[in-house]
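Slide 14.
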Amino acid sequence: MICSMTGFGKGEKDFNGGKITVEIRSLNGKTFDLRLKLPSGYSEKEMWIRNYISTTLERGKFDININNNQTNGTNLSINDELFKEYYKKLNSLADELNEKNRDLFPSIVRIPNIFKETEYELSDSEWEACSAALKEAVTKLMDFRRQEGLAIEKDVVNSINNITELLPKIENIDIERKKAIRERLEKAVKEIKERNTIDKDRFEQEILYYLEKLDINEEKQRLKQHCNYFIEILKKDEMKSKGKKLSFVAQEIGREINTMGAKAQYSPLQKLVVVMKDNLERIKEQLANIL
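Slide 15: predicted structure.
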């Protein structure tokens, strides 16, 4: 089984009458890349979260948003002593001036330093709820990745099968190809013969050498082996991350297909090579999104 790098997971936990929500979105990426949005009181847990995500989800681009609807990460309190001091002095001044308008509260709350802001302290119980929501989101993301992986695997296996199913056709075409190349060479030599004398034995040796250079039997054998190995890796359950290894095997498959195309010199064979390349490109596109 393979896993996609694309996915989404959401976890929620009730805490102290409110709710902690964790959302994770992932996209494909060659390395681990994490963007994390936390309430300020949670900043001390950032390294733990990064280590947990990199260990559990391995590779990809991740956006994680943690939200507690009870707090914005700060505690707000009133400086009682300062407020009372302002209130007494303003009242005293109002008495002295015989001022009847005593609505002093709106004015006092606008005075600097009346409100004190302190960083929100994350409690153990709140972090326990948050980490549980995070793990829930990760589990759902992994389920999402596996479901996406099943669809990708089906498409990739289909493309590999398309390549291997063309090998018997290549076998038949290769017989015709060698015959056509030989006839083409004999015709060319016959035209030369009419003007010059050639050594027949030397000619046979040159023909054999030329045909050996155009022989694609080794490429066909290696291509079949690479395709079988590709499927073998794909089906291994114990391998969690397979994308990079499958990409290396796909490169080897491409090398054999390209060599056959370079040696072909025969239109029907070149058409089959083009179909193989088209299937391989679809495989490579899918591998870019495999974990």
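Speaker note: The chain is about 60% helix and 15% strand.
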